[in-house]
């Protein structure tokens, strides 16, 4: 059996544009974010999905809607990393008070640990592979840090490896399982 899990990162928000960590703050897409999210529709046209999932946050759900999937199955497993005390801060601002800070190594005070995010990513992969057990592909709309965690969990890499994966807004990635094993078939494609 072959399986593809497509990962779509939500469109631009004011905070993603400025590099602010946006976990639980439920921001809308910018006008440009809506345009780029709508452009995903053409990239996904002609593909059939047995299941479409989304984070509950409006930026992910709106991206799904604009991409042509108005009724995704909403799951908390795809929520963004909980940044706790770092919500709304940039990485540079965090490193001013905590030099060398790296989200996938250090986590966030008052938020999630990297191990908790990795476990959630693995739970999402269990959900996705179960949904595709009868054959077919899966699509997920979510956020930059959780989708990187999903990718490294798929590849059975340590969560710290996620820091090496760049993932821009309104991009498409694809995880695949073939007779050769699991692979990253597409990453950060615009």
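^ Assign residues to that structure.
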């Amino acid at each position: 059996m072959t399986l593809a899990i497509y990962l779509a990162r939500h469109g631009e928000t004011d905070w993603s544009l400025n590099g602010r960590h946006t976990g639980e703050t439920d921001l809308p897409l910018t006008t440009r974010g809506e345009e780029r999210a709508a452009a995903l529709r053409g990239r996904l046209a002609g593909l059939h999905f047995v299941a479409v999932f989304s984070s509950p946050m409006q930026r992910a759900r709106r991206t799904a809607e604009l991409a042509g999937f108005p009724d995704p199955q909403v799951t908390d497993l795809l929520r963004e990393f909980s940044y706790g005390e770092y919500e709304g801060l940039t990485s540079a601002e965090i490193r001013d008070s905590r030099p060398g800070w790296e989200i996938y190594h250090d986590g966030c005070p008052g938020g999630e640990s990297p191990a908790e995010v990795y476990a959630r990513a693995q739970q999402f992969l269990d959900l996705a592979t179960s949904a595709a057990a009868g054959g077919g592909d899966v699509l997920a709309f979510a956020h930059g840090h959780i989708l990187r965690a999903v990718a490294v969990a798929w590849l059975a890499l340590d969560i710290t490896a996620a820091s090496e994966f760049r993932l821009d807004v309104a991009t498409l990635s694809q995880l695949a399982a073939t007779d050769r094993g699991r692979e990253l078939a597409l990453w950060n494609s615009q």
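The CA atoms of residues 77 and 120 lie 6 Å apart.
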